[in-house]
Amino acid sequence: MSGVATPGRKKAEKIDRLAELSAAHDDERGVSLWQEAFRRLRRNPAAITGAAILMLFVLVAVFGPFLVPYATTDTIGVREGLVKSGQGIIPGSSADHWLGFDHQGRDEFSRLVVGARQTLLVGVVSTLVGLAVGALIGGIAGAAAGIGGRWGRWIDTTLMRIVDMLLALPSLLLAVSIAALLGASLVTVMIAVGMISVPVFARLLRGSMIAQAGSDYVLAATALGVRKSKIALTHIVPNSLAPVIVQATLTLATAIIEAAALSFLGLGNPDSAVPEWGVMLADAQPYLGTRPALAIYPAVAIIITALGFTLLGEAMREALDPKLRK
Amino acid sequence: MALLDVEDLSVTFARRGQRTVRAVDGVSFSVDAGEVVGLVGESGCGKSVTSLAIMGLLPRQKGVHIGGKASFDGTDLLQLDARSMRDVRGRDVAMIFQDPLSSLNPVVPLGIQVTEVLQRHRGMKGEAAAKEAAALLDRVGIPDPRRRLKEFPHQLSGGMRQRALIAMAVACRPRLLIADEPTTALDVTIQAQILELLKELVRESGTALVMITHDLGVVAGMCDTINVLYAGRVIETARRRPLFAEPHHPYTVGLLGSVPRLDAGRGERLTPIPGSVRDVLPWPDGCAFAPRCHRRVDACVGEPPELVLTHTGHSYRCVNPVTGPVAPARAQEEQA
Ligand SMILES: Nc1ncnc2c1ncn2[C@@H]1O[C@H](COP(=O)(O)OP(=O)(O)O)[C@@H](O)[C@H]1O
Ligand SMILES: [Mg+2]
């Protein structure tokens, strides 16, 4: 029928054009891709739960230290003669001390609350370290693979071999080696935990860049003569970021657990004035028989926080998945 | 001399552990300046691969072998190095693809994508580029272009997206535009508008257009010359009128029979071509269409049919061609 002249054609065209316009406007106006993903997140109960947990966690981490009833260094339990850890006497919950005392007679609740800040800090910084280094390596490898040629392939292969070697090492072993090399400190924990996630971020970004390089819009841009470097920067990288951001959320969960593990092994901050959930867990070890709650509190805090990041991360993965997007 | 002269173009894909695919098998056609040329054939006959080969967009890797010539204004595009080819693309030769949604970057505002080509070939930046981009969108019939430039592809309708892609393709007034099934992914009502737009742009700017389609109805309204492709080879070439009035190759006749006609009588059935594109004979062994052809004779098998050129400039590859006009109801009448 196309190309056949009919009297009403011009009019029909006008109406069609209007229909076309209004069709696009109905519910899509001003909605960006991320906004759409956000809308779907809000409908997902797992995402809401995860976000609620994280909100609470962040609030506690930020404001907790100003609100706690006791200083984290105050050995009030010993001073008042309530705690005699040598004899295994560590009182539990009471009206004044909601979660009782730790082995040095310090208020357990206050330490748990203040510990959130340290945990958040270590988690976020180490994830950022892993993200930055990993994205740099993955980005270079992905761009090199896309540009191709002998050099491109060589750079890509070499970088990926290094990453694969890192990936082959057990993550905790890697972290412990790095920590042993740098000496116990907070920065050490951040770097060590960050390094664990470098290979994941690198592979992920490279993989999604290579996948994007084969997409129609890259072909269309190439057909317009746009240079490869420009295509990599304005087209491929922005499209490859979604999975990386999702991965970062998921990595926060494991980073918190790994940081706790390093602290537990004594590779974290040696200054016990600053409470940290991993250290608290380690400190509770001798008293597992007499007061297991001292281990349970920080353990539960770690698990719930990690759960929050995992729930939100998985939900984000779903919301951004182009295959699920209609 | 023609603007584009494709001579004996062949593309083979060899993959380890798989049979070598001859996607394009000796395609020849030419396009004069300002001419609209149709490339028609069933899906899988090599139309897209032909256009990608001309554009230099097939992956440059082992296993992909391109032969023949594609002379554009005297230079063989197939021999150009990557850098020169990048300069040609978008400036002298541009292309429009089938799926407007996936051909636009989903996370980048339209404006950035449109100005990209202006910056690349015309050195435009900032406000000048934005102004020109808006003018381009306006030219292809996108209302409120300034606002549209800030929007993302998914905020536009399918027709608007294809209009935007057309705007990008004609941004540097290329001398040749290749449109690979530009309306296939669109609603029927939108299809006609996009074709009309292409026709208009081509008429105004004098750009030559290669119109690729599987739908003879599309070429009927706009092409000056039509090439019918089968199994990677051109089997019939003619100006529009003689092709529709007096097709010679049984495959072309079959294609015409497959076009749904609004004026066909109620009882009249469509006559589909029996079999599928997969029932092909390799060209060296005879006519690839022979297994599906109702006019098959012994001479069809053995060696590839020679190109026959009639005095009207009509050419076809067939040893037992259809002669005389086909049923008049079937011949496409179209506006000039
Ligand atoms: N990259 C590729 N690798 C292998 N075979 C391919 C490739 N691209 C296309 N083909 C094959 O080439 C033939 C022609 O494809 P194409 O040109 O896309 O057909 P169409 O006429 O529908 O556009 C098909 O049989 C297809 O399977
Ligand atoms: Mg195709």
Automatic annotation (TrEMBL), chain A:
GO terms for cellular component: plasma membrane. Residues 116-313 form the ABC transmembrane type-1 domain. The chain crosses the membrane at residues 46-68, 120-147, 244-267, 295-316. Belongs to the binding-protein-dependent transport system permease family. SUPFAM superfamilies: MetI-like. One of its GO terms (biological process) is transmembrane transport. It is found in: Cell membrane. The keyword Membrane applies. This is Peptide/nickel transport system permease protein. InterPro entries: BP-dependent_transpt_permease (IPR050366), MetI-like (IPR000515), MetI-like_sf (IPR035906), OppC_N (IPR025966). Gene3D superfamilies: MetI-like (1.10.3720.10). PROSITE patterns: ABC_TM1 (PS50928). Keywords: Cell membrane, Membrane, Transmembrane, Transmembrane helix, Transport. It is a multi-pass membrane protein.
Automatic annotation (TrEMBL), chain B:
InterPro entries: AAA+_ATPase, ABC_Ni/Peptide_Import, ABC_transporter-like_ATP-bd, ABC_transporter-like_CS, Oligopep_ABC_C, P-loop_NTPase. It is a peripheral membrane protein. The keyword Nucleotide-binding applies. The keyword Cell membrane applies. CDD domains: ABC_NikE_OppD_transporters. One of its GO terms (biological process) is peptide transport. Keywords: ATP-binding, Cell membrane, Membrane, Nucleotide-binding, Transport. It holds the Pfam family ABC_tran. Belongs to the ABC transporter superfamily. This is Peptide/nickel transport system ATP-binding protein. It comes from Micromonospora pattaloongensis.
